[in-house]
Amino acid sequence: MMAMDNVLKLFQTYDEAFRLAYSGFSYHELRAIHKEFNSIIDANAIYDAKKLLKVVLKTHNYPKKLNPKPLLRKQDFRITGNKCSIIFKPGERLELKVFPSEKQLKLMAGANPKGARLVERNGKYFLNLVLKKEVAFQKEFETVIGVDIGINYIAVCSALTKDGRFKNPLFFKGGEWRHLCDRKRKTTRIEEFNRLTRRQHEILHTVSKRIAEYAKRFPKPVIVLERFGHFQNNSKNRRFNFLLGNWARKKLQKIIEYKANWEGIQVVYVNPAYTSLTCHYCGAKGKRNGLVFTCPTCNRQYNADSNAAMSLAKKFRQLLDEPEAVTGERSAVDLSSTVEGKAYLPRQTCIRHGNQMNGMMVTRTVRLPLGAGGG
Fold this sequence. Notes:
The chain is of the alpha+beta class and 375 residues long.
C-alpha cells in the first residue's frame, strides 16, 4: 500500500504544480514549494499548463475545471518485464507492477516508448503508454477497400480486388449508436452522459479495429475514405439533427487511419460526390430510397450504403488506372515527379496532414494497469 500512497502523492503534487503554473507561477517558485520531489515533475507540469494556456488564449474556450494527468517523458520512466520505475523524489523512484495483456506485449515489442501519462479511474491507476514506430507503405496497391460512413450503418466496407471483383462487404450496424444518442439527448445527469459517451468511443474503436483487420485479409490493401467538407443540415427533425451532431464521422476516420497505418496500410481520401447516387456496376445515376439503391439503367438493386462503399473503391481504382486523364486537385506530391522507387497518389485524392506515401512515423497508445509492488 505504501507504493500506491506514493502514487497518490505524485498525483497531488502534479495537480498542485499544474494549477500554480497555470496561474503564473515560475519554475523557481514551484521548486521552492516542492523541494522534496523531483524537479522533472514541476517541469512537466509547467509544460502542460503553458500548452493548455496557449490553446485557451487562442480559442477563448475556458475550461470549467482543471483535471491534469501526470506527464512522463521517455526518460522519466522505465519498464523492465512486469516492473515499472517512475521518477518521484531525488534518489528515490516509484517501483510498481504493470499487467500488460498478450496483445499489448506484442505491440510493445515492435515499437519504442515515446512517453506516457498516469491516469486514475474509479480508484485504479493506469499507465497510458505512447508507442512509436516507423512503417513503410507498399508502392503498389492490389486491393482497394472502400469505406462508407453513415447513420443507418456506422460503416460499410467493400473490397475491390485487382481482377475487378468485389468481395463480400462488411457491415457495422448503427442501432446501438442511435440508441445511445437518444439516451444522451434525454438524460440530465452528467455521470450517465459521460458513461454513454465512453460507450460510443468503445464502438468507434471496435469498428476501426475490425476495418483494419478486414483490410489485412487482402494482398497489398489501401483503405479509401470520404473527404468530408463543411456539413450543412437544414432538417427540422430535432432527433435527426442530434444524431448528425453525434455522428463522429471524422473521429472514426482518424481512428481508422492510425490503426491502419500502424499495420502498414495506407489510408487515402477521395471526393465522395455522387458516390451514394451512382451505380457501381454501370456508373449510371440511380435513386436511393432509405436503405435500398435502385439503378434504372441496369435494373439492379443494392444496399445503398454498400453501393456507396463499392463506388468509392471503384472511383479510386479508376484514378489509379488512368491518373493522367484526371483533372482537378493534385496530390501532396505532383505527378510530374518521377523519382525512382517513390510512390505517388493520383489527382483528386489526398492523405491527411500531407503524410508521405512511402513511409511515416506512427504512434499508438496502450493502457497498462498498475499495481503495488515491483521492488
